[in-house]
Amino acid sequence: MLAFTLRRLLQAIGVMLAVGVIAFAMFRFAGDPVNQMVSIDTSAAQRAEIRHSLGLDDPVLVQFGRYFINALQFKFGVSYQFRLPVSSLLAERLPATLELAICATLLAMVAGILMGVYSALRRDTILARLFQAISLIGISLPTFLIGILLIYLFAVTLGWLPSFGRGEVVKLGWWSTGLLTVSGWKAIIMPAITLGLFQMTLIMRLVRAEMLEVLRTDYIRFARARGLTTRAIHFGHALKNTLVPVITVAGLQFGSVIAFSIITETVFQWPGMGLLFVQAVQNVDIPIMAAYLLMVSLIFVTINLVVDILYTVVDPRLRSTVSRAT
Amino acid sequence: MTQPVLSVRNLEVEFVTRRATLRAINGVSFDIAKGEVLGVVGESGAGKSVTGLAVIGLIDPPGRISAGEIELSGTRIDHLPLEEIRRVRGKRIGMIFQDPLTSLNPLYRIGDQIIETIRTHTSLSESAARRRAIDLLAEVGIPAPERRIDGYPHEFSGGMRQRVVIALAICAEPELIIADEPTTALDVSVQAQIIALIKRLGRDHGTAVMLVTHDMGVIAETCDRVAVMYSGRIAEIGPVQEVVRNPLHPYARGLMGAIPTLAGEDKRLVQIPGSMPRLSAIPPGCPFNPRCAFAFDRCRVERPEPIRQGTQSVACHLFDPAKETAA
Predict the structure, then answer these.
(1) Interface A-B: count of C-beta contacts within 8 A
(2) Which GO BP annotation is one of this protein's (chain A) (predicted)?
(3) What is the pLDDT of residue B210?
């Protein structure tokens, strides 16, 4: 088990190194940032001075080495547009994105599992078919459209919910949370639905398919032959077996939720990392883009690692094969 | 004769499909007495397993029991409401399925599965149920049960898992055990042990056993009586020595002729020509008539009813005293 974890950890470090090279390569190939920062009448000397102050005139390897060492200490350089350290910019925006992503994922999992289980157990009811239809919409409609539709309905027409921003925010140390105020809750509803809808339909369809599969297995038939209650069979034996693959998918999807939040944050002007990234792209603010890339891949790699380990906790069969294999 | 534990009368099971209604079981009747082991043999698709499933009420739609009665110690158990048949399953009828590798839920410790079943059917406390589970595991021959009770199914071999499945089937002291090909998925060396175990448990507890198999060796060794099934009907039923040594129905004769013996190694084994008809194409009259060497006109039009021949009962026109008249 320990060897398995260590091996996965080494693989994760390998992936992060590769991403680091790509992130650094962006600095070399995304054009000259100095041209973006200065106006037409800036003199060549001033340009050289800016270039020098940002360390852009050193040899490539020196720049990479410096970048690499700094990245290990979470120093991602200074934003070209804000003239502030990227790490503090990201740290400032991180809580908003994480809160949104967690709310969206929780929403997706709770609603997705409930709907999936219901439509598997009561396959032929009208409600089950309605869920299927909704899931089709959730899978096929693009996120930004859903966001705009929600804004039109609940913010513009009905006026119940705010159309942008995070509402009032409370500071807890360096973490800022919108979940302690009414306006914060109101503000997060629509973005969370928009962001979570795709995952919700995905989880719903997965749970439904898995559950139907599990209900056909011999051990469910044997559980029925043992006279267990329907409740114990459905929500004990069947659901537990259903959730094994669902955990993986939901876990891996959490990474994409954070990555996809770019679109949702843009639609709702949510002050998170995604919005920061979009602004960075518009201004060719490479330090932010590179740091964002590193950060998202770090999150992905971490989630993968956690899911792998969680898997072995849930499924006793893997526990033994894993320890036998290593 | 005292009241039988299980009494099945004229059982019919149908599967309603979009094209047609297929009759998998067609007029099956038999009894099993207390402590008796009834073997049910036949080719795949003869309706052996469906009969077992019908008794325990596990025929899933589109299948249904369309006619007949099933009585367990005198009470009707077919067409009971779901909640009532659930109380019969596991408590009064224990079931053992073919494949022990897939019969146990892989994510639960075997002890938890046994305790769960015990507590569903009795009012024992958690700790009492656990003690009972350990006793049961010891009874079915699992070494070091107090340690193995916390193991997961994948930590057991096939034979050991089948022992666990048997422990699960008997944990509420059922009156009847239905064993549906309990040894098919097992190693030959383990098969004998499992059969001996089922036989011993039946004897010790006075449990009636319905043993579904297509292994004639198992039947000869284990059963008191045997029913030979063909195309959803019982072709012949009787005491096992009689049916094995002196089979009456041409199909039963063919089956017995297909058993290799240690003595006659040079003889070619007898083979029954053709194969069993599909459910959608059962011929009129006796379903066996196209393959039967003795078939005459009446076999092709009239379905034979069971006829008593000494201790045996056989569904074949050959044994009807007035056999030529009806044709």
Answers:
(1) 78
(2) transmembrane transport
(3) 92
Torsion on CA atoms B127, B128, B131, B132, rounded to nearest 10: -140
- In whole angstroms, what is the distance from residue A167 CA to residue A179 CA? 9
Round to whole Å and give the CA distance between A181 and B4: 72
Distance, CA of B252 to CA of B49 (rounded, Å): 19
**Taken in order B128, B129, B131, B132, is the CA torsion positive or negative?**
positive
Q: What is the least distance, in Å, from the CA of A225 to any CA of chain B? A: 6
Share of chain B above pLDDT 90, in %: 5
Could you report the per-residue pLDDT of A102-154, keeping only the tens digit for each? 899 899 999 999 999 999 888 888 888 888 888 888 888 888 888 888 888 88
Cβ proximity of A56 and A284 under 8 Å: no
SS3 B47: coil
Does residue B62 have a cis bond before it (omega within 30 degrees)? Answer: yes
Facing A219 at nearest CB: one of B105, B117, B155:
B105
CA distance B162 to B95: 12
More confident call, A31 vs B321: B321
Number of Cβ atoms within 10 Å of the Cβ of B279: 19
Write the residue in B86, B89, B152 that is nearest to A316 by C-beta.
B152
Question: How far A178 CA sits from the closest chain B CA (Å)?
Answer: 39
Strand B93-96 relative to strand B176-180, pairing:
parallel
Residue B245, C-beta contacts closer than 8 angstroms, at least 6 positions apart: none
pLDDT at B25 over 50: yes
Cα A277–chain centre separation: 14
Listed in sequence order, the residues at least 6 apart from B240 whose beta carbon sits closer than 8 Å to its beta carbon are B39, B219, B220, B223, B224, B225, B226
| Facing residue for A219 by CB, picked from B87, B90, B102 | B102
Q: Which residues of B touch A228 (CB under 8 A)?
A: 86, 90, 116-117, 120
Which tokens in the block code for residue B201?
A: 């448990």
Distances in Å between the Cα of B209 and the Cα atoms of B171, B174, B232 are 15, 10, 20
Q: What does A107-124 look like in DSSP terms, one character per residue?
A: HHHHHHHHHHHHHHHTTT
CA distance A66 to B246: 94
Alpha carbons within 13 A on the beta-carbon side of A27 = 27
Q: What is the pTM of this model?
A: 0.77
DSSP B139-197: HTT-SSHHHHTT--GGGS-HHHHHHHHHHHHHTT--SEEEEESTTTTS-HHHHHHHHHH
Structural domains in chain A? 86-325 (1.10.3720.10)
Handedness of CA A26, A30, A32, A35 (dihedral sign): negative
Residue among A223, A225, A230 minimizing CB distance to B56? A225
Q: How far apart are CA B73 and CA B95, in angstroms?
A: 17
Unique residue bearing structure tokens 């319905």: B210
Confirm if A200 and A108 have CB atoms less than 8 A apart. yes
B283 to chain A, minimum CA–CA distance in Å?
33
Answer yes or no: are the C-beta atoms of B118 and B133 closer than 8 Å.
yes
Instruction: Verify whether the Cβ–Cβ distance A226 to B120 is below 8 Å.
Output: yes
